[in-house]
Design brief:
globular, 343 residues
């Protein structure tokens, strides 16, 4: 796929996703939604749309699969050697994601049913909500398999970046209005700008370090892009695992090391030590990004920053577009769920 086709595909999927965010769940009373009580919230429509769940069910499923892989189910670690296990692992993750979507949709229907947003004469709202959210999750998985970015084995992360990009204009307008009315001091713009520049630079440094380590160690071919999911997935897994009352550091560092040790080609001891050292530095930078992002969110009211995870995803995706003319990472044609757990 050349650069033009990649951009067109990404844009078309972005349009489809944006339309989905503007399609309300069946049974929503649009007249009630149009009242000033709800219209003041620009994100309210996306929260009652058929894509209200976004990628959360898939993240939950991938997190559970990764936890199982690290703790108990060693056969998941061997999926690159056994195609049957690869397909089975991907199928299990998809089933879990759809089940999580059904449970979350049930909770959403209960919450919305207690508000005036649901039409009084609506029957079967719960079942319709579950069907809509499960279908939307399946469609999201389908869309993620349509995107191929250099260094990323699937389109999960570009798809994750779409809501951030779509909300950017509204966030900028809201920030300008907050500054104009004196709700926030103008100095916050400078703080956010410095934070964004430093964060993007930090992510670029991690990408450079990982590429340098992989090529020097000879773990990948010279013209092959290194697997960059390792620069995104560990902090996301840590946040996902935290939701299951699991320790942050128990998953971010072992996941990085497991990914390093799981590279397909054998390396010399010295090269392997270098990879582990680089992975540790990357993990440390990721922790700093998460902490700094939390501090910025706590003390800065401007909605300009996409958050630490958003910055990582957007930057790595942009680097993938920059390498459009380079051979993609080996295994990029695999299903996204199996490829993700591999990293």
């Amino acid at each position: 796929m050349d650069l033009r086709q990649m951009i067109i595909t990404f844009a078309l999927i972005g349009i489809v996703y944006a339309l989905g965010l503007h399609i309300p769940l069946p049974g929503i009373d649009l007249e009630a939604f149009a009242s000033p009580k709800y219209s003041v919230d620009s994100d309210m429509l996306s929260r009652i749309s058929i894509l209200a769940l976004g990628l959360t069910p898939l993240f939950a499923a991938l997190g559970l699969a990764e936890i199982a892989r690290l703790i108990a189910f060693s056969w998941l670690k061997q999926k690159d050697e056994q195609d049957r296990n690869t397909v089975l692992g991907a199928a299990i993750v998809i089933v879990i994601a759809l089940a999580v979507a059904a449970m979350q949709a049930y909770a959403i229907s209960g919450g919305l049913g207690a508000t005036p947003l649901v039409a009084d004469n609506m029957t079967g709202f719960t079942m319709l909500t579950i069907a809509s959210c499960v279908g939307a999750t399946a469609f999201t998985i389908f869309l993620s398999d349509r995107i191929r970015i250099a260094g990323l084995r699937d389109g999960l992360w570009p798809l994750y970046s779409l809501p951030i990009l779509l909300s950017l204009p509204n966030n900028v307008i809201a920030s300008v209005e907050m500054t104009r009315t004196g709700a926030v001091p103008s100095t916050q713009w400078l703080i956010v700008a410095v934070y964004l520049v430093l964060s993007v630079a930090a992510v670029v440094v991690t990408a450079f370090l990982w590429r340098s380590a992989c090529h020097e160690a000879g773990t990948i071919a010279e013209e092959t892009i290194e697997p960059r999911e390792i620069l995104i997935w560990p902090p996301v897994l840590a946040i996902t695992a935290a939701g299951y009352v699991l320790a942050f550091f128990a998953f971010i560092a072992p996941n990085v090391i497991a990914a390093v040790q799981g590279l397909r080609l054998e390396v010399k001891n010295g090269a392997n030590i270098r990879l582990i050292a680089i992975a540790s530095i990357i993990a440390f930078i990721q922790i700093l990004l998460l902490v700094s992002g939390a501090l910025v969110s706590a003390f800065i009211q401007l909605p300009l920053s996409p958050g630490s995870i958003g910055i990582i995803v957007l930057t790595i995706t942009a680097l993938g577009f920059r390498n459009w003319d380079t051979v993609e990472v080996e295994g990029s044609s695999e299903p996204h769920v199996s490829a993700q757990t591999a990293s």
